[in-house]
Amino acid sequence: MLDQWRTSVIKAYARSLGRRRGDLVTPALILDLDVAKQNLARMVDKMRPHSAKLRPHIKGQKCVELARMQVEAGAIGVCTATVWEAIVMTRAGIGDVLIANQVGGREKIQALAQMARQGRLTVAVDDERNCADLNAAAEAVGSQLEVLIEVDVGMGRGGVRRVEDALTLAPKISKMKNLRLRGLQAYEGHCMMEPDRALRIVKARKAADLVGEAIARLAKAGFACETISGGGTGTYEFTGTDPRYTELQAGSYLLMDMFHGKLVSGFSHALTVLATVVVQQGRTIVLDCGSKSICVDDAGTPMKPYPFYKARDFHEEHALFDVDNRCQLKLGDTVELIPGYAPSTVNMYDVYHVVENDVVTAIWPIIPRGPGHGGLLAGEKP
Predict the structure, then answer these.
(1) Which helix (H) or strand (E) holds 272?
(2) CATH top-level class for 2-31+266-365?
(3) Which of 138, 150, 196, 364 could pair covalently with 185 via S-S, beta carbons 3.0-4.6 A apart?
(4) Separation between Cα atoms, residue 21 and residue 4, nearest integer Å
């Protein structure tokens, strides 16, 4: 069913193939493939001297083709935010998938255990009861799940709150025959919200030191951590180069947006949303691209050829800009906007319009946002 869904989505947008990027029906999500490849090459080059291997988080891009591109460039696998993303990745042939969150709910756990028969699946855990549910589901279908104990390094979200809690949980997992403890999940997502680079470094180092303590104490108790997974685009320069981490989960660098552009430099905007000027009244132009089409950020959501204009307001279906005589846009013209936050923008669309040399050369489906698309529940065939 999933293949049928992909085929139907591509067919629905096939009329866009061969068009120039400015001639699409708007709003349209555009992926400049050449720019994305440049971003990927830069990240691979940056990480090459370091021990941490790239395991890109695909929650932002939500695309099989982009995941394959990164694995082909040397990534050891991918990580996902949801079971449904993990199922799509596994069915697409990505052999090593980490769900970098806890998974709860009977049907989702069953779907995860079932899919673990087809590929290596790892999930974050922080509670013995959840581990017991995962183990029982895997035992019922004859699969094995790998797990990382999540350590809360400052986010206050998932993860054991104390190293002692990890020491208590590890031996309990070791007694569950259908679970295998690989190491630790230690994502310092709170650091991504810190705009001050110097302070972000301090916070990331503090998080890494807590990870180091957990590694040492688990090792002393007889539990070696082969995998330490964490980091993001905003901290890749220091978390990704810390020898205590074995995996870097950075993913937003590939598309790049205004939010992440405030945190790191050197990556270009591969993702844009094409909009049409639908109103022109004096110095005000209105685009057909509102909050239901693009995610905004405090850094602004600029028009690609006119970065000096900042939107006055975003309504559900409209973006309002006040312009001056530098703006050459006329009623009916199209223009590209740079998303404030790429992951939330991508989540609003069915497909990427993949552009090379300013022409749409492919349509790439975006991973469904739940089990109802493509038949993703346990027991359903691909």
Answers:
(1) strand 271-281
(2) mainly beta
(3) 150
(4) 27
Of all residues in the chain, the percent with pLDDT exceeding 90 is 87
Tokens coding 174: 């070791």
What is the pLDDT at residue 382? Answer: 43
Q: Are strands 271-281 and 28-32 parallel, antiparallel or unpaired?
A: antiparallel
First to last CA, the chain: 6
* pLDDT confidence of residue 298: 80
Q: What is the pLDDT of residues 228-276, one digit of tens each?
A: 999 999 999 999 899 999 999 999 999 999 999 999 999 999 999 999 9
Q: pLDDT per residue over 16-42, tens digit each? A: 999 999 999 999 999 999 999 999 999
Which residues are CB-contacts of 209 (< 8 A; sequence separation ≥ 6)? none
d(CA 63, CA 109): 23
- Is the model's pTM score more than 0.85? yes
Q: How far apart are CA 81 and CA 68, in angstroms?
A: 17
| Sheet of 53-54, strand order | 53-54, 247-248, 227-230, 179-185, 145-150, 120-125, 96-99, 78-80
Q: Is residue 374 very low, low, confident or very high in pLDDT (cuts 50, 70, 90)?
A: very low
Q: How far apart are CA 113 and CA 99, in angstroms?
A: 12
Task: Classify burial at 40, counting beta carbons within 10 Å of its beta carbon; exposed 0-12, middle 13-18, buried 19 or more.
Answer: buried
Write down the domain spans for the chain. Answer: 2-31+266-365, 33-255
What's domain 33-255's architecture?
Answer: Alpha-Beta Barrel (3.20)
